[in-house]
């Protein structure tokens, strides 16, 4: 069995980069709990689309801060965050205090391919627009500096198992 690190493992990055899939694999390998912050919000407050539509983005961002604070209190967890969660400095501070953050990164083309293939996954409003590839590329560019502050793990062209193994090896366990 792999020796567990002392700090939580936190995965961030754009949607479709593999945070949930890879996070579940890492948690299984380490024998840890898996926490998805979007799922915490959904379980307690309903769908993210409904929160945005009925209560606004400000309310959703506050719910994200609450989920980040709650997740940070646990130990021996792999935490998958929403795509923008760690772009908020307050969330980044609370989660980096108890965890090592890895930013999963993929090309815009790979992200579009993965999102379209995930027919059972969440609703992805970006895919409903006239040019989803352009929207993804624009958002990746806007978020590049924020994502760049964390240790990068490229996921394009790699299997979830390979990515999970890479991260576990980086933990020096």
Describe it:
It is a single chain. With 173 residues, the protein is of the alpha/beta class. The chain has helices spanning 19-30, 37-45, 48-55, 57-73, 89-98, 108-117, 132-148, 160-170, and strands at 8-13, 33-36, 77-80, 99-105, 151-154. It has a single domain (8-164), classed as P-loop containing nucleotide triphosphate hydrolases (Rossmann fold, 3-Layer(aba) Sandwich). The protein contains eight helices and five strands; from the N terminus they run E-H-E-H-H-H-E-H-E-H-H-E-H. A five-stranded parallel beta sheet has the order 2-3-1-4-5. Helix 3 packs across helix 4 (57-73), helix 4 packs parallel to helix 5 and helix 6 crosses helix 7 (132-148). The N and C termini lie close together (10 Å). The mean pLDDT is 90.
